[in-house]
Structure formats: structure tokens, C-alpha cells
Specification:
Number of domains: 2
CATH topology of the largest domain: Rossmann fold
Oligomer: single chain
CATH architecture of the largest domain: 3-Layer(aba) Sandwich
Largest sheet: 5 strands, parallel
Radius of gyration: 22 Å
Strand content: 5-15%
Distance between the termini: 56 Å
Strand order of the largest sheet: 2-1-3-4-5
Number of helices: 13
Length: 296
């Protein structure tokens, strides 16, 4: 697992104490500026104390501000190299950016979200979840709003290879489904924030029935994360025009692809036939390029 200071900062920020959070918000807003400031200057800029800056650094797992600052400098350098690949000097989107700049910046953020998520994913957990899915008689998947898109995507993938799976975006349907799960079943919830009440309730109901519970979230210290068997973490950052719902979706879909391929690898002997059957089933509903043109 790659240890990236900005990933850790984004994931830990909501759970920090207020004074530590102010330090984190200052660093997150302008990491390039922060890396060039002394500990005293960071404390003044974030309206906190030197002691708060030290506690902030230790909350992220560093021995102190000096180690945090070194890691931050490395992260800033890597991001500058990454931005240059996409031809953007400033990664945030502004109101007066032209179409070319918007496309380049969105591409940069989406590429970085996938890259950071891949670097941070816990491979042992990924394989444990894949193994649980393969052995499960049934998989329940929960997601609302934007996370509902991710839930549906995973369900469709599992369904295409013959696995019994259901995606629920309505909390009543999710709870009634969770109520009839049995030990050995798997329940997977998607919540970018890790705060979605409906997802927390559904996973709790599934766990009470003996199901293996999994949460996919951007914030591993969030409340729902504390009460699940397995945690798969995304790593997506927000910008002014790309709130969590947008930035998190591409990272969630990346985790789904990682997971599905590991499931498919374990189903090698029985994977190809249902995939081919489901592919053939929809072919009569596809147009041919030889079809005569109509109208003008």
C-alpha cells in the first residue's frame, strides 16, 4: 500500500479535532504554499497553535511536523509531474476556464482518482471480499443517489456471470432484503462520505442476519466504517465544480472493476459460458451498420 500524505489527509479530515481540522483545511487548500512555511507560519495561517500543528501531524501518523512536511513536499512534486502530463498548471476548475482547460482538468482529476485508489487499495481485503462473493449464495448491494449508480453497476456485472445479486437504492427495499439474508451471504454498501444513514442501517441489518458486510467509502474513519467486516477505500478529491458525488463515482467504479476481475479469476471454469449467453441474448436488439438509412 502506497502511503500518500494527501490521500491520508482527505480521508482523515472529517474525524479530526476542530483545531487540527483547520490545519488540514489550510494544507488541503494550498499544499504548495504550506510546504514552504515553517510550523509557526502554518499555525498562524490556520489560526491555531504550534501544538495543534504537531497534533495534526501525529493524527495522520507522522512523528511530527518535520516528517509531515517532507512527505507533503514529495506529494506536491508528484502532483506537479502528473499535472504536466495533462497540460494543466492549476488543477482546480475556475469559472472562466475554456472548454479545453475544463476537459484537461477533469481528465486529470479522474485519472488521479483511479491512480490514487489503485495505490491505496488493500489487496488482502480485496481478495477476501472477492472470495466471500464467490462463495455467497446471494449478494445484496446498497447505494443511494450517485452511489446507486455504482451499486447497479456491480449488480449487473455479477448478474451477467450467473451470480444471484440484487441492488437496492430504496431503504425500505434494502432493509426487507437484508432481513432475509443468511450466514454466508454478502452485503456491500457504497457511501462516498461513509455517513449515509440508509447505507449504515442496511449494512447493520445484514450483519445482524450473519451476512458478511463490506463498505466502499472515501473516508475509512467514518461512522459506518467502524461496524463492517471489510472496508474498501476510494481516494477521490473534490473541487469547486466536482463535488464528492462526481469525484467519488469514478473511484467507486474503479474499485468495482478491481473486485469483479478478482471474482472472475476465481470463476474461470464457469465464467465464459454465462458471459457469452448474456452477450448473445441482446444481439438481436443491436442495429447493423448495413441497415438502410431513413429520412435525411
Amino acid at each position: 500500500m502506497v502511503d500518500d500524505v494527501m490521500r491520508k489527509l482527505r480521508a482523515s479530515l472529517p474525524a479530526l479535532r476542530p483545531s487540527e481540522r483547520r490545519v488540514g483545511e489550510f494544507v488541503q487548500t494550498d499544499p504548495t504554499l504550506a510546504v514552504n512555511l515553517s510550523i509557526t507560519e502554518v499555525a498562524e495561517a490556520s489560526n491555531t497553535s504550534v501544538a495543534s500543528v504537531v497534533r495534526f501531524s501525529r493524527s495522520l501518523g507522522y512523528s511530527g511536523y518535520a516528517e509531515f512536511r517532507r512527505e507533503l513536499a514529495s506529494a506536491v512534486g508528484r502532483e506537479q509531474v502528473s499535472r504536466s502530463r495533462f497540460g494543466v498548471s492549476d488543477s482546480d476548475i475556475s469559472a472562466d476556464d475554456d472548454a479545453q482547460s475544463v476537459v484537461a482538468k477533469v481528465a486529470f482529476h479522474e485519472g488521479k482518482a483511479i491512480e490514487d485508489t489503485a495505490a491505496a487499495i488493500n489487496l488482502e481485503t480485496l481478495d477476501a471480499v472477492a472470495g466471500a462473493i464467490v462463495a455467497a449464495p446471494r449478494v445484496d448491494i446498497y447505494g443511494v443517489a450517485s452511489s446507486g449508480v455504482a451499486a447497479t453497476d456491480l449488480q449487473q456485472k455479477l448478474h451477467r456471470v450467473g451470480m444471484v445479486s440484487f441492488a437496492w437504492s430504496d431503504v425500505h427495499l434494502a432493509l426487507t432484503s437484508a432481513a432475509v439474508l443468511t450466514p454466508g451471504c454478502v452485503a456491500i454498501g457504497f457511501s462516498h462520505s461513509g455517513l449515509t444513514v440508509e447505507i449504515g442501517e442496511s449494512l447493520a441489518a445484514a450483519r445482524a442476519r450473519g451476512a458478511t458486510t463490506v463498505l466502499v467509502t472515501n473516508f475509512p474513519a467514518s461512522p459506518i466504517s467502524r461496524d463492517v467486516d471489510h472496508l474498501l477505500t476510494t481516494s477521490a478529491s473534490e473541487t469547486r465544480y466536482r463535488p464528492g458525488a462526481m469525484s467519488g463515482r469514478i473511484a467507486q467504479l474503479a474499485v468495482i472493476d478491481f473486485l469483479f476481475v478478482r471474482v472472475a479469476q476465481q470463476l474461470t471454469d464457469q465464467f465464459a459460458e454465462p458471459l457469452e449467453q448474456t452477450y448473445n441474448a441482446v444481439q438481436p436488439h443491436r442495429l447493423s451498420y448495413d441497415r438502410p438509412r431513413t429520412g435525411h
